[in-house]
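Case study 2.
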Amino acid sequence: MIEFEKVLGAFSRLAELTESEARRESALVTLAIGEVGVMLRPGACTPDNHDRICHACAAFAYHKHALLTAMKSVDFTAGDVRMSAPDAALLGLARQLREDAVGSIADLLDTGGFAFMQVGP
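Prediction:
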């Protein structure tokens, strides 16, 4: 079983959030745990594998957090003041972190199915 609290702690460190800020985004953590959980082969969640699985869940939650943060940002200009959305590099790093996390648990994945992780241009 994947420990919610352990994933939440790892997510808060990745996203540089306080514990209370991370708890406000606990739905992302729950969603990430479910997403990684269905990817695992039966019996993969053992004590020996638990840290890697929790890290993967946190990386998935962080990617979702980065996407939501980018969607909430608005580009606008008012006189000499210009505000813009977060750099695309942040989203790229979050996506790479998620992909690396999948690689770190590749030996635990159920390869009998197929699923899209992301659709891109």
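The chain has a mean pLDDT of 87.
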